[in-house]
UniProtKB/TrEMBL annotation:
The lineage of its organism: Eukaryota, Metazoa, Ecdysozoa, Arthropoda, Hexapoda. It comes from Drosophila rubida. This is Coactosin-like protein. Binds to F-actin in a calcium-independent manner. Has no direct effect on actin depolymerization. Acts as a chaperone for ALOX5 (5LO), influencing both its stability and activity in leukotrienes synthesis. GO terms for biological process: regulation of actin filament polymerization. One of its GO terms (cellular component) is cortical actin cytoskeleton.
Amino acid sequence: QMPLATSLDKDAIREAYEDVRSDLTDTEWAVFKFDGAQIIVHGRGQCFEEFRQQFGDSERAFGYIRIQMGDEISKRKKFIFLTWIGQEVGVIQRAKMSTDKALIKDVLNNFAVELQAGVEAELDIELFREALNRAGGANYGTGIRDN
């Protein structure tokens, strides 16, 4: 039997995405998980520690997170799109992730960095910041540039 085609709860996902992007809300992240063959909004919140706790070893999920970058001179909000495939996820579900990811990226289409993780150690704010720094832009404040 063929696995069902994945669908999105598009309106709810778009709303959560815009909530994370908005300067008018405190929401810093949203997590999207599978409910059967549908990707739904699983949760959203404010602190990175909470974000880290959203992902399980047997789960597939997506995360969208806003991270404040820069320094005292120049603060910028940057966004990361995260694909999570837990260690216990099976081969078929793993294989479907690239298609499923393409679907959700139609909605979550604005981010500086795309990351993939599968173990908790990879859900590290410093790793996220390093990825954002590598992806772009000047680092002011130190007077030293390393290109």
